[in-house]
Write a structure and sequence with these properties.
single chain, alpha/beta, Rossmann fold, 8 helices, 42% helix, methyltransferase, O-methyltransferase activity, transferase, SAM_O-MeTrfase
Length: 209
C-alpha cells in the first residue's frame, strides 16, 4: 500500500479548513464511530467548489452512504437544483433524510433506496455524476451512465487511486476494477480526465461536448 498524501500535509490542509456546521460535524463523528467510509472534509470541499463552478441542475450520486458527500453537493447547488442520493441501506437513507431536514436542505434532495446503478439509469441530462459504489462496478457504471449525461457534464469518482494499490501488482477485483475504470475514462476522447492525489484519489472528468 502506498501513502498518497503525507499525513502532515493533510493535517495542514485541514487546519486551513475549519468547520462549525453541526450537521457536518455530526456526520464526521458518526463515520468515525462506525468506521464508515466517507470522502472526508478535504474532498468534500473539492466537491463543493466543483459544484459551485458547474452549477448543475441535476446531481446523481451512485453510492451515497448516509449523505456526507451529498451534503456538500446540496450545500453548493442553487435552490432549483436537485441531488439524487442512492443507497442500498434504508437506515442510511433515513439518517440522511433526518440530517437534511435539520439542515434546511431537504428540498434539494431526492432519496432513493436500492441498487445505485439501476436507480441511476432512470435519469437523463445529468450535469454531475458522482461514482462511489463497489469498486469493481466503476467501469460498468461509467459505461451505463455516460449516455445519460448532459453536455459538458462532470464525472467525479472517489477512490481513484485505491490506497495506492493501482500502482502496485495487486490484482484483486476491486483494484482491477479501479484500474480498468481509470484507463477507460482517461482513454476517452470525448472527456478530459485528471486524477487529483487528494485523500484516496479523486477523478474529475469533463465532457467536452
Amino acid at each position: 500500500m502506498i501513502t498518497i498524501t503525507d499525513p502532515r500535509i493533510e493535517e495542514y490542509l485541514l487546519g486551513l479548513a475549519p468547520e462549525e456546521e453541526p450537521a457536518l460535524l455530526q456526520m464526521e463523528h458518526r463515520a468515525k464511530e462506525l468506521a464508515f467510509p466517507i470522502v472526508d472534509r478535504l474532498v468534500g470541499r473539492l466537491l463543493y467548489l466543483l459544484t459551485r463552478i458547474r452549477q448543475p441542475r441535476l446531481v446523481v450520486e451512485l453510492g451515497s452512504g448516509f449523505g456526507y458527500s451529498a451534503w456538500w453537493f446540496a450545500r453548493a447547488i442553487s435552490i432549483t437544483g436537485k441531488v439524487v442520493m442512492t443507497d442500498h441501506s434504508p437506515t442510511n437513507i433515513a439518517y440522511a433524510r433526518k440530517m437534511f431536514q435539520e439542515s434546511g436542505l431537504i428540498d434539494r434532495l431526492e432519496f432513493r433506496v436500492g441498487d445505485a446503478l439501476e436507480i441511476g439509469r432512470e435519469y437523463r441530462d445529468i450535469d454531475l455524476l458522482f461514482i462511489d459504489l463497489d469498486k469493481h462496478q466503476y467501469r460498468e457504471a461509467a459505461e451505463a451512465m455516460i449516455p445519460r449525461l448532459a453536455p459538458h457534464a462532470l464525472v467525479i469518482a472517489d477512490n481513484a487511486l485505491w490506497h495506492g494499490r493501482v500502482a502496485e501488482r495487486e490484482d484483486d477485483p476491486e483494484t482491477r476494477g479501479i484500474r480498468e475504470f481509470n484507463t477507460f475514462m482517461a482513454g476517452r476522447k470525448d472527456f478530459f480526465t485528471t486524477i487529483l492525489p487528494l485523500r484516496d484519489g479523486v477523478m474529475v472528468s469533463y465532457r467536452l461536448s
